Amino acid sequence: MIKLLKNTSAAGLSFFLLMSCAGTDATSTNNGDQTVSSGSSAVATGTAASTTAAATATTTEHAMQQATELEGAWRTTDGQGNEVVMLVQDGFMTFARFNQQNKQFLGTTGGTYTLSNGRFEFKYEFNTIDSTQVGTSTSANYRLKKDQWILSRDGLTDTWNRINESNSNSPLAGTWRITGRERDGQMNTMRPGPRKTLKVLSGTRFQWIAFNSETGQFSGTGGGTYTAENGKYTENIEFFSRDSSRVGMSLSFNFEVKDGNWHHSGQSSTGAPVNEIWSRISKD
């Protein structure tokens, strides 16, 4: 399974950043001798097809429901006092390991995921620990138990606790990709491609990531908590890969969601003017 951003401590846990994909289980079918009339065969085939279609629809609906239940922010620790935060939105997820008190960024990974019959499959789009994992997939068993998400494979189990965001009604929860940036007074459209800058927002937490999902190149990340109300979007930085001195800062911007796009303007952490448009990846 994927190695978590965790140290292999006495607990024996060693998940999410480096483990590779397991092989596919082989399945065999036993075709016993059976004699049926052609009419019976047709009826049986039709009934089986209907049953299969109904089962598939039920499974898909259940997977979609569970995918929705997973959306939000989750937290665990690595046994060394470092925090690991997972954000899940719009079929995309990020993991960040950091120590806010010491202003240390310790690693991040992220990508797309799917759920099916109690199996969780994750495809890497970026990985700061091992970029050779980018483009590969790995899987694990999973289950939800109240506000806990439990992943297990090969006798190892890891438990994530949901961050309570019940009081949030943020209009920005989702995974957003930058699609427009103003330069020299001109708003330039940014075309989709392997080079991506994303912002993943739960109800109260955010992480931005710049990376190339084709080459594995990673350009930077930052994250923490945020608020978005009355046209003001404020980020409270808990980790920043490029400059640890930014940790503890709060940055405020103007925001507006218009025609489904997030219009974001203000000043960056360096004081440079910012005017950007972000679009939900669920609309790509």
Give a verbal description of the structure.
The chain is mainly beta and about 280 residues long. Among the domains are: about 40-70; about 175-284, Lipocalin, CATH 2.40.128.280. Helices cover about 10% and strands about 50% of the residues. The protein contains one helix and 17 strands. The strands form two sheets. It has an eight-stranded antiparallel beta barrel. Strands 9-11-12-13-14-15-16-17 form an eight-stranded antiparallel beta barrel. The protein starts with about 35 loop residues before the first helix and ends with a strand. The model is unreliable at about 1-45 (pLDDT under 50).
Describe this protein with a few key phrases:
284 residues, mainly beta, 8-stranded antiparallel beta barrel, 8-stranded antiparallel barrel, disordered N terminus
Total of DSSP H or I helical runs spanning 4+ residues: 1
Quaternary: single chain
Low-confidence stretches: 1-45
Q: What is the architecture of the domain at 174-283 at the second tier of CATH?
A: Beta Barrel
Helix content: 10-25%
What is the number of beta strands? 17
Determine the CATH topology of the domain at 174-283.
Lipocalin
Strand fraction equals over 45%
CATH class category name of the domain at 174-283: Mainly Beta
End-to-end separation: 29 Å
